[in-house]
Design brief:
By secondary structure, this protein is an alpha/beta fold. Helix content is 28%, strand content 28%. The protein has two domains: 109 residues, Nucleotidyltransferase, domain 5 (2-Layer Sandwich), CATH 3.30.420; 72 residues, 2-Layer Sandwich (Nucleotidyltransferase, domain 5), CATH 3.30.420. Helix 2 links the parallel strand 4 and strand 5.
């Protein structure tokens, strides 16, 4: 029985999930992005106690590797690698946007393309375009959104935009085929896609695993 701890601290809302055979046994979340680091380890400890499992019962740890918040990605990856190293179990790293697209596929009944968006400051987002079968038509990228940014896909298909970066794009992307949706995304969906990778033994080496930042980190400095 594959018992996998799933960690997602890539976005404004962090969540963790303990899943068995891809089915969520327990979920926990944190809505304050600046507190993800302080929240994560106590939340995992509490979840394991509540479910009656111990860390040594885990067969793998999965983490959303990016794109997303620079600090959040480092928090999640460091925790996941630490557990895997200490327990001698494999690490599963999954694309954040791909996991969001899977959540949307489960919740949106209509056909069309899926476009998850993560806020990346100003008018920039981390985004991708997926078919319902998970095929990436636009791989994960950082994009400054303009009115015609998604015309190649909107010409022939309806596109569902969702995620915390989609609201600021709604006034810009004016097209009858553009639909802005609310999708409830959490680490429970990571639990399912991670289980599929576990079955295929698609693991990430601990020594070389690092977050997929997608763009260079920058900060403001005082002159």
């Amino acid at each position: 029985m594959a018992l996998i701890l799933n960690i997602d601290t890539a976005t404004e809302k962090a969540s963790i999930c303990l899943a068995q055979e891809g089915k969520a046994l327990a979920l926990a979340g944190n809505l304050t992005q600046k507190e993800h680091a302080a929240w994560l380890h106590p939340a995992i400890e509490q979840m394991m106690q509540q479910t009656g499992y111990r860390l040594r019962d885990l067969q793998a740890v999965a983490v959303t590797a990016g794109p997303g918040s620079y600090t959040g990605l480092r928090v999640g990856m460091a925790a996941a690698k630490g557990f895997c190293f200490a327990l001698d179990i494999p690490l599963i790293a999954e694309d954040t946007l791909r996991t969001m697209a899977f959540a949307a596929k489960e919740q949106l009944p209509d056909d069309g393309l899926l476009c998850p968006m993560i806020d990346a400051r100003r008018m920039e987002v981390f985004t991708a375009v997926y078919q319902k079968d998970g095929t990436a038509l636009l791989p994960s990228t950082a994009m400054v959104v303009e009115p015609n940014s998604f015309d190649p896909w909107l010409q022939d298909h309806p596109v569902s935009f969702f995620g915390d970066g989609s609201s600021k794009c709604k006034p810009i992307i004016i097209n009858p085929r553009a639909h802005f949706r609310d999708v409830n995304y959490h680490a429970g969906y990571l639990g399912y896609v991670a289980f599929l990778r576990y079955l295929r033994k698609e693991f990430t080496g601990l020594a070389y695993s690092e977050p997929a930042y997608t763009k260079e980190f920058y900060t403001h400095t005082r002159k």
